[in-house]
Each structure stands twice: as structure tokens, then as C-alpha cells.
């Protein structure tokens, strides 16, 4: 047997990619304590906390408008499966946290979707989970965004999209004439 055959099987590690954005990041440097250079291992039984208190939080945001402990991420395995997930919990009494469109008040928690946007105040964090097999630890890989991750878009009110029949006459044409649509046999045209 060769040494390669005798080596233990290498497990892949779940990695949580977090991309941070704040409109004043260049002036206020609130991300200066975050390590954007490399992946960081976190033990599976540890809770990854984010906030401004560096003694209580693994990931410190240097901003007086951020709560001492803003939110936490807990790594866990779903019951009766081999699937690993993250749970996000809002730990701020003053600031609501949104995960995609779900608003979390103090101590509310939900499963983190595999790809989502976490928002509080002017902070936007894109979270993306890269699945792995190891249950001993997970990794975080932090990134810094140059542009907003989420933008409010004011779209003009669009009419509902309805299929247009082969004759090219839209059913909304009849409705605008005050008549109700009727079925027409294509041979009658």
C-alpha cells in the first residue's frame, strides 16, 4: 500500500461566505477589525457573534450604532439528516434584523437560507453557505463589497403579464372596450 492509500479520507468543511457593505465604510472604517484575508475556522459548538464588543464578539464592527452584540450564528445538524445548517438570532434589543424579507426582533431566530441578505441599520451582509461534511468545525470567509448588495428599486407599475393569443389581440383589449372576453374559434376569424 502507498501512503496515499493509507491516508485518512479528507472531509470537506462547511464554509460561510459573508460579504459586508456599509455606505460609509471608507470614511468610518467600521470593518477594520475583520479579517478579510483568509478563511477562519470556528468550532462547531461555538456561537459566532457579531457586534461592537470585541470581548463578547468574534466579529467586531467598530460603530457606536451597532449593538454590543448584534446577532449570532449557530452551526448545527438537522435532526435525522446529515445536513448542516446555520441558525441566525437577533441579539439586539434596539435594532431589528432582516434576513431577506423576514424581520427578526430581539431573540427571534430562523434558519439561515443557503444564500441571503442580512440587514440592520445601514449594514448589508450577503451570506452564502458552501456545504461540507465535517461536523467538528466550520469556516468563515469574509469579503468586502465595493457597492451596495441590495438596492431599493422603484419600478413603474407593470401590467400583469398575460399570454397573447396567436391572433395578436390581447384579452385586455376587450376589457378596455367594456366587453367581456368570449371564446372564438380560430376558423371564425
Automatic annotation (TrEMBL):
Keywords: Cytoplasm, Immunity, Innate immunity. It is found in: Cytoplasm. GO terms for cellular component: cytoplasm. Residues 49-121 form the FHA domain. InterPro entries: FHA_dom, SMAD_FHA_dom_sf, TIFA. GO terms for biological process: innate immune response; positive regulation of canonical NF-kappaB signal transduction. Pfam families: FHA. It comes from the Eukaryota. Belongs to the TIFA family. This is TRAF-interacting protein with FHA domain-containing protein A. The gene is Tifa.
Amino acid at each position: 500500500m502507498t501512503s496515499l492509500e493509507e491516508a485518512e479520507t479528507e472531509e470537506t468543511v462547511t464554509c460561510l461566505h459573508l460579504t459586508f457593505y456599509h455606505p460609509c465604510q471608507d470614511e468610518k472604517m467600521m470593518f477594520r477589525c475583520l479579517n478579510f484575508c483568509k478563511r477562519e475556522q470556528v468550532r462547531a459548538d461555538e456561537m459566532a457573534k457579531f457586534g461592537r464588543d470585541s470581548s463578547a464578539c468574534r466579529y467586531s464592527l467598530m460603530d457606536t450604532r451597532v449593538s454590543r452584540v448584534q446577532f449570532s450564528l449557530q452551526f448545527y445538524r438537522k435532526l435525522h439528516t446529515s445536513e448542516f445548517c446555520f441558525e441566525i438570532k437577533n441579539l439586539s434589543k434596539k435594532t431589528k434584523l432582516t434576513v431577506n424579507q423576514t424581520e427578526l426582533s430581539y431573540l427571534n431566530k430562523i434558519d439561515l437560507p443557503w444564500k441571503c441578505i442580512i440587514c440592520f441599520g445601514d449594514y448589508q451582509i450577503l451570506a452564502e453557505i458552501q456545504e461540507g461534511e465535517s461536523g467538528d468545525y466550520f469556516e468563515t470567509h469574509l469579503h468586502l463589497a465595493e457597492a451596495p448588495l441590495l438596492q431599493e428599486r422603484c419600478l413603474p407599475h407593470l401590467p400583469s403579464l398575460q399570454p397573447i393569443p396567436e391572433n395578436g389581440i390581447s384579452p385586455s383589449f376587450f376589457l378596455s372596450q367594456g366587453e367581456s372576453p368570449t371564446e372564438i374559434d380560430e376558423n371564425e376569424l
